[in-house]
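To: structure desk
From: M.T.
Subject: fold request, one chain
Message: Could you run this one when you get a chance? Sequence is below, nothing fancy, just the single chain.
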Amino acid sequence: MQLTDEFRQELQEKVGRMKLEGARRKELTRHVAMQLSFKGYKPSVGIVRDITQQGSLTDISKDLTELREEIGKALSRRTLKTSMPESYLHMVEQTIEQLWTGAVDTASKALEAERIAAGQIRHDALREVETIQALRAEELLQRQALQQALDDERRRSSNAEQQAAALQAQCRELAESVARWQANTDTERRLRTEEHQRFSAELELMRQEHGRALEQAEGNRRYVLLQLDTAREAERNLRERVRQVEDDRTAQEQRTRVELNHLRDRNGAMSLQLGELKGELKAKETLLADANKRIADLESRLEGERIALSAHNDEKLQDLRAEALGGLLSAARNAPNVFQLCDEINYQVRVALEENGKPLLWLEDEAGNRIGSTCASVNDLDAQCQQLLDR
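Reply: Done. Structure tokens follow.
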């Protein structure tokens, strides 16, 4: 019988959703075969392969054979035709088929719900991972920017050292020029003494300014000490220069004042830049600590959700095992010989599952004593009840 376009489209859409949820080839083959059987179609290898688009013809044939064997084992009670009426056997077969169909449908719905929930959790986990990756990328960019700022600061420090060396060279040149001025009059000596007093006051102000600069640059003591030594060297050179001034005192004094003001301005600007860089570095370290804390929180949330999902799957598995035991107990009680024996002698049917998932069935009397041996299937239990009835 040819499949209708509407039914084929419905199966293909369902298979597509199951693929997105992570279903494998065997699950897809079983689902399509069961749906074809429910609709009255024969689940052939070609039709199943055309709908699932997964696996070779050999693999699909093996999957269908396993499915038929499982159904055949569940319906193997057909061998009882020689020992019970045809009408009663037909009623038992219909009951078993209804139980099997109901159990398969319930398990399919539960599995589909679990796939949807697992897909949603997987989607949320992927979003959390993407968020963590984005935060780590942002952290990397911040670290690169911080490294670039530190490199710039090192270059500025190197330039400042070079400029300080140039100033020292200029001071030495001034000292050499002052050495040539030797022959001045008593008036020039008096003027030189007055100039010396004025320069001493200016140098005292310069030392005070250097003291304030040291307080603002606590995080870079080595650099400040270098600047202080340079300033002291400049002070000694200027003292020597004042003592040795011989010629053209007024012009030389103006040049010296300009140089001192220039040194003062440069020292203040460099101290201000150092304070700003320290503030920027502190702010970036705070941002880095916040980013690491957020990454740790997200990883903790992801681990909690994984544990919750595992516990939820265990609960679902226990529910399915309980449902399977209920179906097995109902099928055993409805077996003809079991039903007759329990009705006549008031025995009770008991079922359980081993750790490997195999079923166990046995009989108990009203006192809870076990009757006969433990059986592995409903057919074995029914045969045991037949032997008890024959006795």
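Reply (cont.): The radius of gyration is 48 Å. Let me know if you need anything else for the meeting.
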